[in-house]
Design a protein that fits this description.
alpha+beta; six-stranded mixed beta sheet; globular
Length: about 575
């Protein structure tokens, strides 16, 4: 160790002296340091720390090729589908490997402007903005791959809708909006991740599916052992316990305890997150307030004025728009904090109307904690819906609530591994596909599920396989009980910081969400578009959206459970 430090000492002294001379020469303007200079100092700090730290994070890479489990034979159609799905989420590669931080995309040097910025627009027209990306040295980017989000909003009207971003792969991005309400509308564009950060996320997804790890306890009498578990475990280290699901074929493994047998496994829990996954240079691409979810400012005005139309003019506009090329059509928009769907009427439910809607129905909720929010909202909102104590761990489940007077049954169960919950009993580890096969179905049965967040650290092929099993189970359910309503809650945007981005970035979520929409397109299922409902709203993004957004999700859900009957 001392020999390594001795070899690094000259480099350390050189870097320190260089930084000191730099500060002396610029001491007069030190109070006016801009964000570029701050980032340069950050880079100097990372260079010093990197020189003194062992570069071990990239050692011991474990990818899917190292996993040992019986692979399921795919049909030709499934192979073709997987290729098409992976093609639908293909992301541009960066032409430069290991680019320096100064050449990465900067939200402060970049800008957007409204192309057809007339003084006045009318409701129903389309608006287009053009984004021009620059690096931290102010030079225009010549390639694409940045992850941008965009929306239009009117804060005084509590109105908002998302825009569609199109990457021209030359540093320019077009953003399309539909003007859905009258008033003064403001355009906002946000850099979620620069293209250089996305390349790092792509590498992590393929090379480090173990960056979230899991554990299980094995117990027999007074003896117990805890071992690491995951979908992917190298078998070369020690013997494995194979917990592959016999019905779906979903793989799951744990290292075999040294003294106990595999059938003594009693629980599943999240073990933790691997650290030190990035090099010093890569860490510069993940900085809060520098290049993670930072607004890009407008070149000129970011506002447009939209006028309403009378019914006749609106009808003419809709016919004209229908015949023209519509570049984007959002699922809906907020107005006065209420979600307005572009495909059907969304009702506003109170506790009385919710009870009337759910009377005589059984509602099954499956998935992660974002659909558990629906269970929590309904049990808190409905005074007659009483939760039954199943002695389940808090925030884990399973949970059950009943309203015996109105014959309402509400159930929640988490999906099977990978699941980052704390201590789930092995007897309660169930796969959604198997649970759907156990439901009889019928006109008074509602099934809703979500599955996305806990798959963000794995290659997309893992998610495709899981969705394929769920889709097959949905088709079997609808075949035996066609009147069963099946609802899918999509992924949503969430708060990000440098560390959280490596495990749960919105980029991972968007990729999985795109795959889910493709795989269930054309099926008789309902999508509750949580992605649009979080991005369009003015409140900060969160893994668990705030109550106003959950309420709107419930309103969309119940509007399909109890649709308005047309006379």
């Amino acid at each position: 160790m001392w020999n390594k430090l001795a070899r690094c000492a000259p480099l350390f002294l050189f870097l320190v002296l260089s930084g000191f001379i730099f500060l002396l020469r610029n001491i007069g303007s030190i109070e006016n340091l801009n964000l570029k200079t701050v980032s340069a100092l950050n880079q100097l700090q990372y260079q010093i720390s990197t020189a003194l730290q062992p570069r071990s994070p990239l050692l011991g890479v474990r990818n899917l090729s190292q996993c040992i489990y019986p692979s399921q034979d795919q049909s030709p159609d499934e192979i073709t589908e997987e290729k098409l799905l992976l093609g639908s989420i293909a992301w541009p590669d960066s032409p430069q490997r290991n680019p320096p931080f100064q050449r990465s995309s900067s939200p402060f040097s970049s800008s957007f402007f409204i192309l057809n910025s007339r003084i006045q627009f009318t409701v129903g027209e389309q608006l287009e903005a053009l984004v021009r990306m620059h690096d931290f040295q102010g030079r225009p980017k010549q390639h694409g791959g940045d992850f941008l989000l965009a929306r239009i909003h009117s804060p005084e009207l509590k109105a908002g809708a998302i825009g569609k971003v199109v990457d021209h792969q030359n540093g320019f991005y077009s953003v399309y909006f539909v003007l859905l309400w009258a008033g003064v509308l403001r355009v906002s564009v946000t850099l979620v991740h620069p293209s250089e950060a996305v390349q790092v996320l792509k590498r992590l997804r393929e090379e480090r599916p173990d960056r979230v790890y899991f554990k299980s306890t094995f117990r027999s009498a007074r003896s117990f052992e805890t071992t690491e578990c995951n979908l992917c475990l190298p078998s070369s280290h020690r013997p494995l316990c194979n917990f592959t699901d016999p019905h779906t074929g979903e793989p799951w493994f744990c290292y075999k305890p040294r003294m106990l047998s595999c059938n003594t496994r009693v629980d599943h829990t999240k073990g933790g997150y691997l650290k030190h996954l990035l090099t010093g240079r890569e860490r510069l691409f993940f900085q809060s307030n520098i290049n993670i979810k930072v607004p890009i400012l407008a070149l000129g005005s970011d506002e447009v004025t939209v006028e309403s139309l009378d019914n006749e003019a609106q009808s003419k506009l809709e016919r004209r728009t229908h015949h023209n090329t519509v570049k984007f059509s959002p699922a809906g928009f907020y107005y006065q904090d209420a979600w307005v769907s572009n495909t059907g009427l969304i009702q506003q439910f109170n506790n009385t109307s919710i009870t009337e809607c759910l009377q005589g129905k059984a509602v099954h909720l499956f998935g992660d904690s974002t659909v558990r929010q629906w269970f929590e909202y309904l049990t808190e909102f409905l005074p007659d819906l009483m939760q039954i104590n199943l002695n389940s761990p808090k925030n884990v489940g399973p949970f059950l609530a009943v309203d015996s007077e109105h014959n309402i049954l509400l159930k929640y169960r988490c999906h099977g591994p990978p699941i980052r919950f704390s201590k789930v009993s092995t007897s309660e580890l169930r796969y959604i596909a198997n649970e759907l096969d156990d439901i009889t179905g019928g006109k008074d049965v509602v099934v809703a599920f979500t599955i996305w967040s806990h798959f963000s650290t794995f290659p997309v092929e893992v998610y495709i396989r899981r969705l394929r099993h769920i889709r097959q189970a949905v088709l079997r359910l609808r075949a035996r009980a066609p009147e069963t309503l099946v609802v899918i809650r999509t992924a949503n945007a969430q708060a990000l910081d440098p560390e959280y981005s490596l495990y749960n970035s919105d980029w991972f979520s968007l990729q999985l969400d795109t795959v889910l929409r493709h795989m269930f397109r054309g099926l008789d299922v309902v999508l509750v578009d949580a992605w649009e409902m979080t991005v369009a709203h003015s409140l900060p993004h969160a893994l668990h959206p705030p109550p106003v957004i959950v309420k709107n999700q419930i309103d969309v859900f119940l509007s399909h459970v109890c649709p308005v009957k047309h006379k």
